[in-house]
Please model this.
Amino acid sequence: MDRLKVVTSHLRRPNDVTAGSITPYPVSASLGHHQNIQYVLNKNLLLSPQQCESYERDGFLVIRDLVKSDDIDRYCARFRGICNGTVKVPALTIMKDVSIAKSEFVVGERAITKIQDFQFDPVLFEFCALPQIVKYVECFTGPNIMAMHTMLINKPPDTGAKTSRHPMHQDLHYFPFRPAERIVCAWCAMEKVDRSNGCLVVVPGSHKGELQEHGYPQWEGGVNKMYHGVLDYTPDQERVHLEMQKGDVVFFHPLLLHGSGTNRTQAFRKAISSHYAASECEYIDVRGTSQQTIAEEVDEIVKKRLGSEVDFNFDDAWRIKGKLVHGQQINL
Ligand SMILES: O=C(O)CCC(=O)C(=O)O
Model:
């Protein structure tokens, strides 16, 4: 335990190390006459003016056919290896669907709905560092890029309890670092996703709102651990179902309201994702904010795993997970 304390104290950077605000890029130069740019940097000029406008307006951008089929097959095979125990990855978080979590009859890939924190796996982490993804990420974060949160989601065929749904939420709820504008998710479809197998659902423009109060939805069939949703969400806002092909990637803002539907097919629906942040981002204290509940839940999980005497806070979890993929590591 003492070793862990030493490790985490080293991970905490002193406040006077390169702290400070992020200098915005002169984006207007890359966008011609459009001056009201808040979410896109586009210093590498990769995005067309239409793509910039669309991300500014909607908070997401779908790029078709960005990841090679062979690469996805490799990640898929690696995931199977992890599920059947032939591949061991340190510090991985493995999650099961609430409707099958206690069943001893469901094993291997069929029992696991999500793995998180695969940054210590050299094969899956390759996804985060794919140059064609990082190039797009840079348009939102700038050149100093940390992969902060990694997931491979294996949405199971729904048992009828509708627990395969993911409630509408904003990812920023989980993140104790800011500014939100310099954080982006890359979510890649590992096969065709549509309404039948529970594709992503987004509320365009919701990234312009505030971070809302989250908690567990009162679903009859139960809800998966850590699947928080916006508490007073009403489905009256325009929603878009993101139907995507294998290899398509959607980049989205961490305040974008999104979730995913029930998987009504008999197959598992897979996606791989990474959240990235500019390494200039800074940790914030979430005590007393709407994020306190998730911080306490993470704390409880860590203490269950490592023992209640461990001095380990919400930020520490992120300091350990974050991994540089491009440029320099500054604050995070
Ligand atoms: O892939 C999905 O079904 C949704 C994933 C998601 O939004 C999340 O894990 O935060």
